[in-house]
Design a protein that fits this description.
Helices cover about 0% and strands about 50% of the residues. It is built from no helices and 24 strands. By secondary structure, it is mostly beta strands.
């Protein structure tokens, strides 16, 4: 059956990324790093923007209000009053950009970095609510997707440079991870991903203009073509978490159409897992 694909926000994002459903406000957060903007979309209504001082690769809700931002210089807290920003972790390095950012069910933040040229020197870091941070995984050339299985026993990481999705054993209580191993070869450039309530992995394949769904065993079981040529990430949202939102980019697209750079939505396509907020 052909999936319905609608335009949720008629944007012209240079590199829309990090769609995140905020349960507390029933809105969708997303960002456009090159323009240094954070978007908050109320489905069916307005899309509001906020400019920040650095490139921002993700904006996530905090359990105490406000946002946590993954900026090019590190992780910063944005207070609920909309005025005060403070650094939680500062790791500014020449040639380093923010990659993916996700929050696990314990409220810890996980973030990747990407080096200019995607030379394999990026890392995956874990940051607690108190700011305690550590590098969990090195050698990520272009880590653009993070997710967990519904039982929190597995962690998934996509790497656009290796063109695959990897899996690590995961311990929710401690945040410890096991050795990285291949789940599946994508045959394209996997970008942001999310996991549904059945344990399947949905991933944006940015050089193929489509969303793919993989089983927990790594078998491809669905391809959905999109009206954009460079999808960048996806997440489930909506009141019942049944709508799949997809960000897209115009940068790098030859002769972009009006759809390229838009925020898309695939209504009633599946059921997502409940997203978490950062405890910091």
């Amino acid at each position: 059956m052909q999936a319905q694909v609608d335009i949720a926000v008629q944007a012209a994002a240079r590199s829309g990324r990090a769609p995140t459903w905020d349960i507390g406000t029933e809105t969708l957060l997303w960002v456009d790093p090159p323009t240094r903007t954070v978007h908050r979309c109320t489905p069916g209504h307005a899309d509001h923007t906020m400019e920040v001082p650095q490139q921002v690769s993700a904006a996530k809700p905090r359990s105490r209000g406000g946002l946590v931002l993954h900026l090019s210089g590190g992780i910063a807290l944005f207070e609920a009053d909309g005025e005060h920003r403070t650094w939680l972790v500062y790791w500014a390095q020449d040639g380093v950009q923010g990659g993916e950012t996700m929050i696990d069910r314990k409220g810890r933040l996980w973030a990747t970095t990407v080096h200019d040229g995607e030379n394999g020197d990026g890392w995956l870091a874990r940051i607690g609510g108190d700011g305690a941070a550590g590098i969990v995984l090195r050698g990520l050339a272009a880590g653009h997707g993070i997710g967990w299985s519904p039982d929190d026993a597995r962690m998934y990481v996509s790497d656009s440079a290796t063109r695959r999705i990897d899996v690590l054993d995961f311990d929710l209580a401690s945040g410890a991870t096991g050795a990285r191993r291949v789940l599946c070869e994508v045959g394209g450039e996997p970008a942001g991903l999310c996991v549904d309530a059945a344990g399947a992995i949905w991933v944006a394949v940015r050089d193929e203009g489509e969303i793919r769904r993989y089983t927990p065993e790594g078998e491809l079981d669905r391809k959905i073509p999109l009206p954009v040529r460079r999808p960048t990430a996806c997440c489930f949202g909506g009141t019942d978490l049944t709508d799949l939102y997809v960000t897209s980019a115009r940068d790098g697209v030859t002769d972009p159409t009006d759809a390229d750079g838009c925020l898309l939505v695939l209504p009633n396509i599946g059921t997502g897992t409940r997203p978490s907020a950062f405890t910091g």
